């Protein structure tokens, strides 16, 4: 599978951290049979290799009153692709940008504090994207499954 090139201790560490990133080095060591120092060394190495990218708190926008999540499919003229990416990646409403296969296609996730803020974002940012050929907007009604990163 994904982790075949890692030894069993690293695999176990990653599995535990994906379940609970707040485990201490000592707790992980007790579970897998390594010292706290050995666990810390292994986690440091996994971070340095870029296998572990970050530890974060994930906030569910649907649980915040009025927040609206949506995504956009944007097809661009090739010469405008990078300019559109640059414009959107610094916007605080945009949470994720993915370049997709196909004709210069982007998949953009955004979270607005309210319907009014979303409308403003669409009118001022999305609708004014120079070089956009086609834009589809989809408001997320409910979250059924939302996996962050790689699940082991």
In short:
With 152 residues, the chain is an alpha+beta fold. The chain has five helices and four strands.
Radius of gyration: 20 Å
Give the low-confidence spans.
Answer: none
Strand order of the largest sheet: 2-3-1-4
Tell me, rounded to a whole number, the average pLDDT. Answer: 89
Order of helices and strands: HHHEHEEHE
- The geometry reads as elongated
Q: Please count the beta strands (DSSP E, at least 2 residues each).
A: 4
Structural class category: alpha+beta
**Residues in helix, %:** 25-40%
Instruction: Quote the beta fraction.
Output: 15-25%
**Assembly type:** single chain
Distance between the termini: 9 Å
Number of helices: 5
Task: Characterise this structure.
The protein is α+β, with helices and mostly antiparallel strands and 152 residues long. It is built from 5 helices and 4 strands, in the order αααβαββαβ. It has a 4-stranded antiparallel beta sheet. It is elongated. The mean pLDDT is 89.
């Amino acid at each position: 599978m994904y982790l075949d090139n890692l030894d069993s201790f690293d695999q176990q560490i990653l599995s535990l951290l994906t379940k609970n990133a707040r485990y201490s080095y000592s707790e992980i060591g007790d579970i897998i049979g390594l010292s706290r120092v050995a666990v810390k060394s292994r986690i440091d190495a996994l971070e340095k290799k870029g296998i572990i990218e970050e530890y974060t708190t994930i906030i569910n926008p649907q649980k915040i009153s009025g927040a609206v999540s949506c995504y956009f499919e944007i097809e661009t003229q090739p010469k405008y692709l990078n300019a559109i990416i640059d414009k959107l990646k610094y916007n605080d409403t945009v949470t994720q940008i993915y370049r997709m296969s196909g004709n210069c296609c982007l998949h953009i996730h955004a979270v607005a504090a309210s319907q009014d803020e979303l409308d403003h974002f669409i009118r001022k940012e999305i609708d004014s994207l120079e070089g956009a050929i086609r834009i589809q907007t989809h408001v997320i009604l409910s979250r059924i499954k939302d996996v962050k990163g790689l699940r082991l």
